[in-house]
């Protein structure tokens, strides 16, 4: 696995700090993944433990991975926009990853999951939402989209328990809900379960191609 720090530029001109980890050279390439971190006003950035665990694991399974700081967070420019303009940050990461793979997935954790699921551009193959805060009723464009979605919901999530996630996504097409047992929204001690579920889901939809 090789990691490089780069600067992305959004369509509205904001510089976004990002890292790309390329897939292990001894494995077939399966695709690419954009990783979106939790709420920056509560300490979220691209080095969040959940995002970091996925970022480091995915290349070992044949996926290029890009993680980035949302605007106004970490090393990125711009100002926080409560999830609206942040969609352009996700789109910039998709743009950057596109030359590496034509099978691109979005994974977001908490706040990042909602932002990611509101970027429904054609190059995205599907979404994984880790601990998505769906209970507040915020619009989720991917909920009406036929592409595959996986919701990884902590058993004791303080912000959106499994029952709320199931009710909110009840009419969403092509949606799988997996409960992460024995943990809350912050997923302490269950990062390996998150990685295992995410990788298994991606591998089911991403046939390997030669390196």
In short:
Pfam families: Hydrolase_4. This protein has 211 residues and is α/β, with parallel strands linked by helices. Helices cover 24% and strands 25% of the residues.
Give keywords:
Rossmann fold; Hydrolase_4; alpha/beta; AB_hydrolase_fold
Which helices and strands, and how do they pair?
Elements: E1 2-9, E2 15-22, E3 31-36, H1 49-57, E4 63-68, H2 86-97, E5 104-109, H3 111-117, E6 124-130, E7 149-154, H4 162-168, E8 175-180, H5 191-205
Parallel strand pairs: 3-4, 3-5, 5-6, 6-7, 7-8
Antiparallel strand pairs: 1-2, 2-4
Helix pairs in contact: 1-5
Contiguous runs where pLDDT drops below 50 for at least 5 residues: none
Structural class: alpha/beta
Domain module count: 1
Q: What portion of residues is helical?
A: 10-25%
The main β sheet shows up as:
8 strands, mixed
Rg over alpha carbons: 16 Å
Order of helices and strands: EEEHEHEHEEHEH
Shape: globular
CATH architecture: 3-Layer(aba) Sandwich
Strand content: 25-35%
Name given to the CATH homologous superfamily: Alpha/Beta hydrolase fold, catalytic domain
Measured between the Cα atoms of the first and last residue, the distance is 14 Å
Pfam families: Hydrolase_4
Domain Serine aminopeptidase S33: 52-165
InterPro entries: AB_hydrolase_fold (IPR029058), Hydrolase_4 (IPR022742)
What does this protein structure show overall?
Pfam families: Hydrolase_4. With about 210 residues, the chain is an alpha/beta fold. It has one domain (about 1-205): Alpha/Beta hydrolase fold, catalytic domain (Rossmann fold), CATH 3.40.50.1820. Helices cover about 25% and strands about 25% of the residues. It has 5 helices and 8 strands; from the N terminus they run E-E-E-H-E-H-E-H-E-E-H-E-H. An 8-stranded mixed beta sheet has the order 1-2-4-3-5-6-7-8, with helices on both faces.
């Amino acid at each position: 696995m090789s990691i490089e720090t780069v600067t992305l530029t959004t369509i509205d001109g904001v510089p976004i700090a990002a890292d790309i980890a390329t897939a292990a050279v001894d494995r077939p390439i399966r695709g690419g993944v954009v990783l979106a971190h939790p709420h920056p006003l509560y300490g979220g950035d691209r080095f969040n433990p959940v995002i970091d665990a996925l970022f480091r694991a995915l290349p070992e399974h044949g996926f290029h991975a890009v993680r980035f700081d949302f605007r106004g967070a970490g090393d990125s420019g711009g100002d926080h926009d409560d999830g609206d303009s942040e969609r352009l940050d996700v789109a910039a990461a998709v743009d950057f990853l596109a030359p590496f793979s034509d099978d691109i997935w979005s994974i977001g954790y908490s706040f990042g999951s909602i932002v990611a699921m509101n970027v429904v551009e054609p190059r995205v193959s599907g979404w994984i939402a880790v601990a998505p805060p769906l209970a507040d009723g915020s619009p989720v464009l991917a909920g009406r989209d036929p592409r595959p979605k996986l919701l990884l919901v902590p058993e004791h999530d303080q912000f959106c328990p499994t029952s709320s996630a199931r009710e909110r996504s009840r009419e969403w097409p092509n949606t799988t809900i997996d409960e992460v047992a024995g943990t809350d929204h912050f997923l302490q001690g269950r990062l390996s379960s998150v990685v295992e579920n995410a990788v298994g889901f991606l591998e089911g939809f991403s046939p390997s191609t030669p390196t």
